[in-house]
Amino acid sequence: MRHIAIIGSGPAGYYTAEGCQKTFGDTARIDILDRLPVPYGLIRSGVAPDHQSIKNVARRYETVALSDTVRFVGNVTVGTDISISELLDRYDAVVLATGAPADKSLGVAGDDLPGVIGSAAFVGWYNGHPDFADLAPPLGGGDAVVIGAGNVALDVARILAKAEDEFAGSDIAAHALGRLRDTHTSTITLLARRGPQQIAMTPKELGELAHLSRALPVVDPADLPPPESDAALEPGLRKSVSHLRAFAERRDDKPIRIAFDFFARPLRIEGDGQVERVIVARTAIDDAGEVRDTGETYAVPASLVVSCIGYRTPPIAGVPYDEKRGRFANVDGRIAPGLYAVGWARRGPTGTIGTNRPDGFAIAELIAADIPPNSGKRGRADLDVLLAERGVAVVTFRDWQKIEAAEIARARSGAPREKFATIDAMLAVLR
Ligand code: NAP
Question: Which of 33, 111, 234, 426 is most buried (CB neighbours < 10 A)?
């Protein structure tokens, strides 16, 4: 027998559990711990609420969760309720699948002004994550700036731009839908510090902007490189750039503009007690492919700034950390004897949800190679004793299913669920 604890119940956590099941069959017991009483991490709180087909992957994780060898142990915070060394004393392997839920800092003057929000917070807010239920982003003004040229920037711009009826069938949090319904955004400027051929936006997600009922994606044709240069691009990026070329030709009129501002690096953010504008440096790409400021600067008005420039993994006491990369220090997933990292906590916030599957399976193979069976550790039996001694109210997968049923029951018409946006409300279902 091997006892394995996985910290984090998002995609990396569940794919690791699936990999361990396949590798060890009935000769391993796998506990998936999460600090929230609800599972699925990024699937629940990161994937956009209007992308339900992506969220459906949770059904696959449910199959893993319901097998006899896997347990969900929710409402347990590693580092507070139990330390890493206490887990290592009890389990043969501890796998950190904690993702990258913290915003990378913009690091420019004024980035702490009210109204400047990181994407982790903004996305968490509209997805009903309990950490951000009280965010109250300033949505009353006319102009929003979204910083970054990745898929998260696209998610944020799209959510800001959609009309209420375009959220039908989504599980956007009621508190966010109510606020977004009353917004009067006229321009959403997407600031990309490099050019159209250097975006990190994928074609399907970019193409969605073409079909918004009240928002028009706008690209300045002057920013586009000669069309023949697209031939050298990898096919996905070529398709994304073709969307930008189509946007540059549109002439229709809609109340909201989603303006792509390429070669635009945020220099500082200004405002009197609240964000009012972003001062931007015009950039160019030099012959070596490096981005350089041209010396030109200008101001983009903004009553809301959402910075979508990537994420970091929060450190955990006692775990070696790579400060520069914002993730656990590891070699191919190995951190220390018995301690592993997987998914974004291992490699940083890149790739699709599916990228985490081979990651998780690879960790199972490392555990098989590193850890002999029958060490004498007792895994979940000892965990349960310790958590009970500490009065931790553990939430099981069956408990989660009750919370889920209550969320489904309270959904607005046509929506798959209405998430509880506080931990108290989640736990109240179980009382
Ligand atoms: P990302 O794809 O890495 O994009 C980050 C963007 O921020 C890049 O355009 C980057 O520009 C820019 N950036 C970084 N630091 C900056 C700075 N200091 N100032 C200005 N711009 C800066 O990250 P993401 O959008 O957070 O997405 C994370 C991962 O999740 C990605 O793999 C993404 O594809 C995935 N995701 C997928 C979906 C989907 O499939 N529907 C949805 C959301 C997220 P440079 O390129 O110049 O560094």
Answer: 33
Same domain flag for 30 and 117: no
Detail the DSSP E strand segments found in 69-136: 70-74, 93-96, 102-103, 116-118
Domain extent at residue 139:
104-307
Q: Rounded to an integer, what distance in angstroms lies between the CA atom of residue 366 and that of residue 362?
A: 6
For 227-267, how does the pLDDT look when each residue is reduced to its tens digit (9 = 90+)?
Answer: 999 999 999 999 999 999 999 999 889 999 999 999 999 99
Please state, in angstroms and rounded to a whole number, the distance separating the CA atoms of residues 188 and 269.
Answer: 16
195 and 53 in a common domain: no
pLDDT digits (tens, 9 = 90+) for 58-78: 999 999 999 999 999 999 999
- Nearest Cα residue to 364 out of 42, 27, 111, 86: 27
DSSP codes joined into one string, 357-395: HHHHHHHHHHHHHH--S--S--THHHHHHHHHHTT---B
Looking at the structure, do residues 81 and 14 belong to the same domain, yes or no?
A: yes
289 and 328 part of one domain: no
Task: Return the CATH number at 88.
Answer: 3.40.50.720
Cβ contact 285:264 at 8 Å: no
SS3 46: coil
Return the pLDDT at 183.
83
Instruction: Report which ligand 1 atom has the smallest distance to the Cα of 153.
Output: 25
158 and 109 housed in the same domain: yes
Which residues lie with the beta carbon below 6 Å from any ligand 1 atom?
A: 51, 106, 147-153, 155, 193-194, 198, 200, 202, 205, 266, 308-310, 349-352
Last residue of a domain, one of 307, 338, 367: 307
pLDDT at residue 141 greater than cutoff 80: no
> What are the φ and ψ backbone dihedral angles of 48, each rounded to 5 degrees?
-60, 145
Task: Verify that 69 and 110 share a domain, yes or no.
Answer: no
- CB atoms under 10 Å from CB of 103, counted, come to 20
Mutation choice for ligand 1 from 147, 159, 193, 206, CB with most ligand atoms inside 8 A:
193
Last residue of a domain, one of 258, 291, 307: 307
Residues 149 and 16 grouped into a single domain: no
DSSP 78: B
Q: Quote the CA–CA distance of 417 and 169 in Å, as a whole number.
A: 9
- Number of structural domains, the chain? 2
